[in-house]
Amino acid sequence: MANVTIRDLNKNYDNGFHAVKDVNLEIRDKEFVVLVGPSGCGKTTTLRMVAGLEEITSGQILIGENVVNDLPPMDRNIAMVFQNYALYPHKSVYQNMAFGLQMRKYPQQEIEKRVREAADILGIGPLLDRKPRQLSGGQRQRVAVGRAIVRHPEVFLFDEPLSNLDAQLRVQMRVELKRLHERLETTAIYVTHDQVEAMTLGDRVVVMKDGWVQQVGEPLELYGKPANRFVAGFIGSPSMNFVDVIINELGGALYAEAQMLRLSVPPQHQDRVRAHLGGRLTLGVRPEALRLASGADPAGYCFDTAVDVVEPLGNEILLNFRAGGAPMVARVDPAVRVRAHENIRLAVDPARVHFFDEKSAAAI
Amino acid sequence: MVIERKWKKWLMFYIPMAVFIVFTLFPFYWMAVTAMRPDGELYRTFRQANATPFWTLEPTLEHFKGLLQTTAFPQWLWNTMLIAVVSTIISLICGMFAGYALARLKFRGSEFLGTIIFITYLVPQTLLFIPLADIIRNMQLGNTPWALMLTYPTFLIPFCTWLLMGYFKTIPRELEECARIDGATRFGAMIRIIFPVAIPGILSAGIFAFTLSWNEFIYALIFMSSAELKTVPVGVVSELIRGDIFFWGQLMAGALLGSIPVALVYSFFVEYYVTGLTGSVKG
Amino acid sequence: MSAAAPTERGRVSPLVRLLESESVLATALLVPGVLILVLFIAYPFVMALWYSLTSIRVGEAGQFVGLANFAKAWNDTIFQTAFKNTVFYTFWATIFKLALGMWLALLLNRSFRFKRIVRASMLLPFIIPTVLSAFAWRWMFDPTFSVMNWVLYHSGVITDRLPFLSDGDWAMWCAVAVNTWRGMPFFAITLLAGLQTISPDLHEAAALDGASAWHRFWHVTWPLLLPVTLVVVVFSVIQTFSDFQLIYVLTGGGPANSTHLIATYAYQVGVASGLLGEGAALSLFMFPVLFAVVWVQLRYMKRMEGH
Fold first, then answer.
1. What is the count of residue pairs from A and C with beta carbons less than 8 Å apart?
2. Beta carbons of B16 and C103 less than 8 Å apart
3. Burial annotation A327-356 (CB, 10 A radius, 16+ → b, else e)
4. Among candidate residues B43, B60, B77, the one where a domain is terminated
5. pLDDT (tens digit per residue) in A207-253
6. Are B39 and B97 in the same domain?
7. How far is A13 from A56, CA to CA, in rounded Å?
8. How many domains does chain C divide into?
């Protein structure tokens, strides 16, 4: 039961690599926070510093009210699930789960009770006498989680725990982890490079890149109001379409123009975009904010293009095309019949258009 | 597989292999035959018509009896065993600790120390035996088993450290990290998690170190002077040759008996020994 | 969720807590081993350097004599012979061990019945104490009772005995043979381990390209085996160059001091005659050669790490 506070956290490795830069984060009690980003973004390093496995170069980490900077991992009352599970190969499942309690000198009876309890929750009761090498990937994963929950720690740390599972099992375990968190109500920090995992699991998601925190927010907030071009492109699949545009004014109305493309600037952006009149911006629009134009769509939000590749996925169709000199994807209704190389007219949902500064990449 | 003709297989494989086997094993056969041959048969020159060097019609145990009655052979065997076991254990403990520190811990000078240990690994015993004999004498260790139990580790520790360092590096770091989060100290994680997981490597290092100690000669020759404190190799050399006379029957019986323990240990742990052997030269 | 663990902090003693620091723990772990190595390798090495510059004998302190011991050795014909013998012995034994060891490794790399037991028994010469097996060889080389003379005599190859160990030149070749016998398995098994890491696909691909067995060896196996070969050769050179036991048993340096190696001669002078200073100086003549070999090896390892 604890919140975790991270203040001005930095990590410099001996070889000069600056892995984590000025990270500030307030994780509330019982919250499930996901750190997500491409590899090398500093998410795992941050997690390892919370665990005490990595020395802190500068800044502070608090668990509850205590600064834990100098506490060894054994004194932090945390539990961690590793990507490769890190099950002790010479110990049985039971011994694996009991180890943490034995180290903390719990009475035998209490250990037994807690291990059985956790095994029941995870459905690994019949496996308690097996050795890790006799288990399947999914079973190992459960044991690793079980080993963490028997401890009743203040904070759970997950380091890409699902990456070694096959796709189907990953989806299943994702749901189970979510259910488990709801049941245990323990603060959790979860690291992943998979934005879908981040969005489905996190109460809040922290997007990181190159050691910097890009944005912190609830999943739908990140999706709907990305703070910058990186977050916009990273969250959502297929990712947001970007096109470099020049802002022009024609008869009092603002237009974003690119090669063979001219779109009206939607009213909610007018004021901020006007400041860039004559300058360059990056326009972003999600594939699902595009649809085949009908007569009712205002001409200012429509454009013509030729379909390059059609990907019929069943529940949706992805249309690949080029517009404004950039490759783009539209995600349209499966009922639509479009063939490759056909000329089509697409409409943009004006409420879902984003503008980003060309240099700083920040949202405007 | 690349297919080959039958005659070619004989020429390229069976015949050379047979020659290798005979070349490798004949001396041991010769040892055994000599040890069981009565003296009367033993000393027939190669020109004598009745010489039958490859076998004997009257096998006898008289040389073994003579060996056990006239020398302290059982005592030598026990000394060798004790010294080999103790020096192996000392070296394993030092090697496990040092290997772990070099493989896993970050500290200043770790690379330098690793190089130094590798260099000591390559220092032959014959380079330093003269001053070492003096040092042993000054420490009052001369003519005690400790002289060997403490000096054998000089060539075993670098080897064990080197081999185990390589083995520890193959164990995922997460295992000990997880143990430390589970509440173990660094030291506890090493003892309770890493060492048990490294048992195959430790066994390899131990078996190899044991055979090396059993084989050692020059230190044992110089540091031990009383007949009853000698190791098998030294005892056989110094007690079974009186003046210019070689008691070949007893010598070979001693060689045979002295080889059996180490050959037994080896035969039980061939795979571990081979791992130790091939690991000993990995950079 | 239930209460926190019984005694979260203070569960382990302050001493153990101190070991949580990586450098403190590393120091504690390294001390026992390093202590033994300092005491019985570094210290004797310094002593050896000091002894070699003095006239110390057993029971006699001796005084500083500069490089006199080295100069004496340099002009000593027995030492000159011993040095030549050592180089000769190391060179030929290494060549034979490498060639035969490689051949044996290639044979053992094929699949055949009883492979495991054959492989295991091939290592016997390396396991059995050298002194003991060297006695078997000495007995086989015995001038009057030699089994080899018997075989050659009765098959009509010779009419008179061969002077295996009673002639200096013959004896050196005999020593090379025994050293080869003992060291070959080490080469064979380590090279075999190297061979087993080479994918059979490579050989099959080369065979499909029409390469002969010799070509396959020379263009596929040998280059891939080169790194492990170099390391094995380095180890073997060091061991052979500093060898003592084999000559000690086979010839004892005789006849007429013609088969001494540096180590056996240093033993004779330093231990048997008690001239510690001169003996130490003789041993140290091995040092430049060993140092050069180790240096080459370290350079090579550094380069491999760089890749």
1. 24
2. yes
3. ebbbbbeeeeebeeeeebebbbebeebbbb
4. B60
5. 999 999 999 999 999 999 999 999 999 999 899 999 999 999 988 88
6. no
7. 10
8. 2
Contact residues on chain C for A184, CB-CB shorter than 8 A: 1
Contact assignment for C9 to A75 by CB distance below 8 Å: yes
Mutation target among B108, B180, B182 for the A interface, most CBs of A within 10 A: B182
Residues of chain A with CATH 2.40.50.140: 241-357
Q: Does B1 fall in a domain? A: no
Look up the domain containing C30 and give its range: 14-52
Say if residue C78 is in the same domain as residue C120. yes
ipTM > 0.85 (yes/no): yes
- Tell me the pLDDT band of C7, cut-offs 50, 70 and 90: very low
Taking CB atoms within 8 Å and a gap of at least 24, the contacts of B262-271 are B262/B210, B262/B211, B262/B214, B262/B215, B262/C127, B262/C128, B262/C129, B263/C124, B263/C127, B263/C128, B265/B207, B265/B210, B265/B211, B266/B207, B266/B211, B266/C120, B266/C123, B266/C127, B267/C120, B269/B203, B269/B207, B270/C116, B270/C120, B270/C123
Question: pLDDT-derived band of residue C1, with 50, 70 and 90 as boundaries?
Answer: very low
In chain A, % of residues over pLDDT 90: 78
In a domain, C7, yes or no: no
Q: Is residue B218 part of a domain?
A: yes
- What top-level class would CATH report for the domain A241-357? mainly beta
Same domain, C85 and C213: yes
Q: Whose CA is closest to B266, among C188, C127, C187, C125? A: C127
Same domain as C48, residue C141: no
| Mean pLDDT, chain A, integer | 92
What does pLDDT average to over chain C? 88
In this structure, what CATH number is given to the domain that contains residue C85? 1.10.3720.10
Whole-prediction pTM value?
0.89
Q: Are residues B163 and B52 in the same domain?
A: no
Q: How many CB atoms lie within 10 A of CB C9?
A: 11
CATH fold of the domain at A4-234: Rossmann fold (3.40.50)
Contacts of A247 (CB under 8 A, 6+ apart): A254, A255, A256, A257, A265, A273, A274, A276, A277, A278, A279, A280, A281
**DSSP classification of residue A192:** E
Name which of A148, A164, A139, A174 is nearest A77 in CA terms.
A148
Among A72, A99, A157, the residue with its CB nearest the CB of B182 is A99
How far is residue A99's CA from residue B184's CA, in Å, rounded to a whole number? 9
Mutate to test the interface with B, among A54, A77, A83, A99 (most CBs of B within 10 A): A99
- Give every residue of chain B whose pLDDT is below 50, as ranges: 1
Q: Does one domain contain both B74 and B49?
A: no
Chain B: closest CA distance from residue C48 (Å): 6
The Cα B19–Cα C107 span in angstroms is: 12
Q: Is A184 close to C1, i.e. CB distance below 8 A?
A: yes
Q: Which residues pair with A189 in a beta bridge?
A: A33, A157
CA-CA distance, A340 to A96, in Å (whole number)? 56
Give the end-to-end CA distance of chain A in Å, rounded to a whole number. Answer: 39
Q: Print the SS3 string covering chain C.
A: CCCCCCCCCCCCCHHHHHCCCHHHHHHHHHHHHHHHHHHHHHHHHHHHHHHHCECCECCECCCECCCHHHHHHHCCHHHHHHHHHHHHHHHHHHHHHHHHHHHHHHHHCCCCCCHHHHHHHHCHHHHCCHHHHHHHHHHHCCCCCCHHHHHHHHCCCCCCCCCCCCCHHHHHHHHHHHHHHHHHHHHHHHHHHHHHCCCHHHHHHHHHCCCCHHHHHHHHHHHHHHHHHHHHHHHHHHHHHCCCHHHHHHCCCCCCCCCCCHHHHHHHHHHHCCCHHHHHHHHHCHHHHHHHHHHHHHHHHHHHHHC
Tokens of A15: 């070889």
